[in-house]
Amino acid sequence: MLAPAAAPCQNAAMDLLLHLPKRAVALGFAWLALVAASPAPSTAQRVADLLDAGKPIEAFSLAQAKASEGDPEGQFALGWFYDSGEHLTVDKAKAVASYRQCADAGLSQCQWRLGVMLDTGEGLAEDTAAAFNLLSKAAAQGNVQAKVDLAVMHATGRGTPLDYAKAKTLYEAAAVAGEARGFFGIGLLHLEGQGVPKDGETAAAWFSVATALGDPSAKAMTDRLLAGQKTDVLDRIAKKANAIYTEYVAPLAAPATAAVPPAKTP
Fold this sequence. Notes:
- With 266 residues, this protein is mainly α.
- The protein folds into two domains: 1-142, Serine Threonine Protein Phosphatase 5, Tetratricopeptide repeat (Alpha Horseshoe), CATH 1.25.40; 163-251, no CATH class.
- The chain has helices at residues 12-19, 25-37, 43-52, 56-68, 72-84, 92-104, 108-120, 128-140, 144-156, 164-176, 180-192, 200-212, 216-226, 231-248, 250-253.
- α6 (92-104) packs across α7 and α8 packs across α9 (144-156).
- It is globular and about 60 Å long.
């Protein structure tokens, strides 16, 4: 049964993120990415608008109807409802079935989420090789969440041979897009000396930037590495963190520069 409508909030994106449990925050970002990438009025945007208006029953009904018509966005939205437990009881098996349909249709958000579920055995039997295949397809389409999870598989040898260089490349691609887990992943590589020189100060700098972007795991690591450090060490870490932030994060906040047409020659 669907839960009663919640009080409307001012923004659909914030509504989705604020009410998602921690395990599903990445899923919420995948939903927002789909809304942003879809031409209006898309199914994803219509469902988000209904949720924003405090109409979860109508939103779920729309997702069901569009999914039954074979609309990949409707299938993702329906999977999201069952997966996240927003406004109804969690049903991972139904989420998997819906994600599989839109993954087969090529929607990267579905390929990513189904890949994660296959990797962890969430709602279906664990299959790391199949997970790697789906995450690779999603990452090839530019899905940032998939890039991070694919990097983890390369860094741990799950579903693919161990390859720290590929992990680092994927983490960096995610960091360029402003994804906190990308910075956290690079920090882990430096902390453990995996494919890069082992360097706790550099690791702390990457963790610091991930912390600034809201990653709770990075905050715990940052606090541990900074505890009891002398001022000169903290200064070096801060300098490195500022350089990383300037290179990766600052450009995302800068306004795009308009192209200037070449001057006409007389």
